[in-house]
Amino acid sequence: MHNIIRLRPWLIGALVLAVPVVVAACGGSTDAGSPPPAVIEHTKGSKVESVRLTAEAARRIGIRTAAEQRLGSGRLEIPYDALLYDPTGRTWTYTNTSPLVFRRHDVSVVRIEGSSVLLRAGPAPGTRVVTQGATELWGVEYGGIKED
Questions:
Q1: Which residues of 72-94 are buried (b: 16+ CB within 10 A; e: fewer)?
Q2: Is the CB of residue 108 less than 8 Å from the CB of residue 99?
Q3: How distant is the alpha carbon of residue 23 from its chain centre?
Q4: 140 CB-side CA count, 13 A
Q5: Which domains does the chain have, with CATH numbers?
Q6: Which one, 32, 54, 71, 95, has least CB within 10 Å?
Q7: Rg of the chain, C-alpha, whole Å
C-alpha cells in the first residue's frame, strides 16, 4: 500500500499532461492548406449544383455507384438504393458526372419492382448513379459539411 501512495502523485501528473494531448489528437481541424472535404460547384445555366468530394471524403462516406440500364421495353432502370425523395415528393438520383463529382438528376418513376426502379425519364443509359452515400451528398448540397 505504501508504493501505491508514492505512485499516485506521479500518476496524477501523467494524466494532467496526457489529457490535453489526447484532446488535441481527437480534434477534426484540418491544416490551413488542405482542401475542404466537399465543395459545391455551380453549373452555368442550371439550378442544380454539383458536389465535388476529396478522395478521402468519398471513402469516408462510402460512395458506391451502379450503371443505369435500358430494358428491352425501352424503359430505364436504376437500383432502388439510388432513388431519393425530396420533401415535396419529387424523385431524384445522384449521377457520377466525373471522378469525385456528383450531380442531382430528377427522375420520373413508373413503378418500383423489388430492388429496381423503372423510370419514365432519367439520366442517359449507362450513366453511373450513386447507390450508397446519396443522402450524404444531399446533406452536403443543402446543408454544407462541417468537420468535427
A1: eeeebbbbebbbbeeeeeeebbb
A2: no
A3: 27
A4: 26
A5: 38-143 (2.40.420.20)
A6: 32
A7: 24
The per-residue DSSP string of 97-144 comes to EETTEEEEEE-EEEEEETTEEEEEE-SPTT-EEEEESHHHHHHHHHH-
Residue-wise DSSP of 36-103: PSEEEEPPTT-S--EEEE-HHHHHHHT-EEEE-EE-TTS-EEEEGGG-EE-TTS-EEEEEEEETTEEE
| Rounded alpha-carbon distances, angstroms, from residue 31 to 27, 72, 98, 106 | 12, 52, 27, 37
pLDDT per residue as tens digits for the range 70-84: 887 778 999 999 999
In one letter, which amino acid is 17?
A: L
